[in-house]
Amino acid sequence: MKIVTKRIYDPPASDDGYRMLVDRLWPRGMTKEKADLSEWNKDLAPSTALRVWFHHNPDLWNQFSKKYKEELEQQDLGKNWLKAHRQQAVITLLYATKDKIHTHATILQQYLRELSK
What we know:
The chain has 117 residues and is an alpha/beta fold. The protein has five helices and four strands; from the N terminus they run E-E-H-E-H-H-H-E-H.
C-alpha cells in the first residue's frame, strides 16, 4: 500500500487511488464535485482544540507533531481504518493548508505507514 499526501486544491489524478480528505473543516471554495473524494474522515484529523492551538505556527511544529501522534495513538482509529482499507493500492491523504511541510497530513502519512508494516 502506497500512502501519499496532496493538497485538495491540486487537480485529481488517475493515480491518486483512494482520495481521503483528512481535515475537520471543509476547504474554502472547494465543491464536492471538484474534490472527487472517496471519503472525508474527520476522525483522523487533529482535534479542534489541537488545531486551534497550533494555528499553523511553524515554531510549534515539533510540539504539535508529538501531540497529534498521541491523539492518534489514544484513539486507535488508524489500525481499524487501515484494516478496512487494506485492499487499496494507493491512498492519497488530502489537506487544505498552503504549507506543504507543516501539515498534519504528513504526520498522519508517517503514522499510517508505520502501522501498515
